[in-house]
Amino acid sequence: MAVKIGVASETANGEKRVALTPETCGKLVKTGAEVVAERGLGRGAHFPDDVYAAAGAKLVDDAAAALSDADLVFCVQPPDNARIALLKQGATLVGGVQPEADSARAEALRGRGIITFPLERLPRTTRAQAMDVLSSQAGMAGYKATLIAAELAPRFFPMLTTAAGTIRPSKVLIIGAGVAGLQAIATAKRLGAQVEGFDVRPETREQIESLGGRFLDLGVSAAGEGGYARQLTDEERAEQQRRLGEHLKSVDVIVCTAAVPGRPAPKIISAEMVGMMRPGSVIVDLAAESGGNCALTVPGDAIETDGGVTVAGPLGLASMGALHASEMYARNVYNFASLLLGEGALTFDWEDELLAKTVWPPRDAATTG
């Protein structure tokens, strides 16, 4: 008997990405799985129904028909409780579920005995790179944030020599050198800006410089475990802010990307620091999703201060590039799902650290059968 995989349209407001593309649908069908998809699933990402059908998907009219009998379900955003209620008892759910962020969602998943694999919990190892949805989607977010900054800035990014004189390049500072920040650095550099990158982890210097950016060294290090930054002490934060505030007086554009998984985004740019920036400066805060790196960020909105500084907090940046973001996300999901697909049934090898450390609720791989 074939494993039945169900995918329905996303319920989150404005979400255009999909967890299943025609490409990954075809690959899943080749494994012997039966794929059921809701009609219109890929509309926002520009994947027509007939292409899914050609890849072997069975198209159904609504989410209930797609999910109610599925053994394995894929999602991009956390499903709401009504969607969880459609899942059959004991089904397996793979995607950006974030169960620990919402107690009602966690209880709904437990109540139906859903075996949940929130991919944001995936260990960040070399083997897991092909399944890392956080990295693939952060790349699109960094790219889009930089384009938004270029659009909002009342300046050219590149240096131009014209009959009307020479235009100096914009000075762009990228705060945070994770995947999103590095993509932002690369994009700003391609647009011709003079680019700097700042991160409290000193090991990012080489990565920033390899993309043509200059590493902004403020003398504060917060190197932590697993490639993430640790929380700064009060003294370290005060010194960082003092030096950064002075530097921002000469910066034209800032793209903020600093985030700590599972926590509110660190506040790096204070209102006082924004007040020291020149009129016409722009801040695009990619971290608005988790509260923002700038004290003045309004998630989902763009404001202009009395001093003429624009502060934008765009949401859903990865969804703005829904086609390519979906292609990457769906490949991540397919690669993870491949660990579960056995001969006609789902199999769970709890000795595999990728499964054991991703599954929610957490379980002891040594004692779980």
TrEMBL record:
One of the GO biological process terms? NADPH regeneration
- EC number(s) per entry: 7.1.1.1
Reaction catalysed by this chain?
A: NAD(+) + NADPH + H(+)(in) = NADH + NADP(+) + H(+)(out)
* Annotated GO MF terms: NADP binding; oxidoreductase activity; proton-translocating NAD(P)+ transhydrogenase activity
Q: Which SUPFAM superfamilies match?
A: Formate/glycerate dehydrogenase catalytic domain-like, NAD(P)-binding Rossmann-fold domains
Query: Which UniProt keywords are present, listed alphabetically?
Result: NAD, NADP, Nucleotide-binding, Translocase
Query: Signal sequence: where?
Result: none
Q: Name one GO cellular component term.
A: plasma membrane
Q: Where is the Alanine dehydrogenase/pyridine nucleotide transhydrogenase N-terminal domain?
A: 6-141
| Enzyme class, spelled out | translocase
- Matching SMART domains: AlaDh_PNT_C, AlaDh_PNT_N
Sorted alphabetically, which Gene3D superfamilies does this protein's record hold? NAD(P)-binding Rossmann-like Domain
Enumerate the spans annotated as Alanine dehydrogenase/pyridine nucleotide transhydrogenase NAD(H)-binding domain: 150-313
Q: Which family does it belong to?
A: Belongs to the AlaDH/PNT family.
What is known about what this protein does?
The transhydrogenation between NADH and NADP is coupled to respiration and ATP hydrolysis and functions as a proton pump across the membrane.
Query: What name goes with this protein?
Result: proton-translocating NAD(P)(+) transhydrogenase
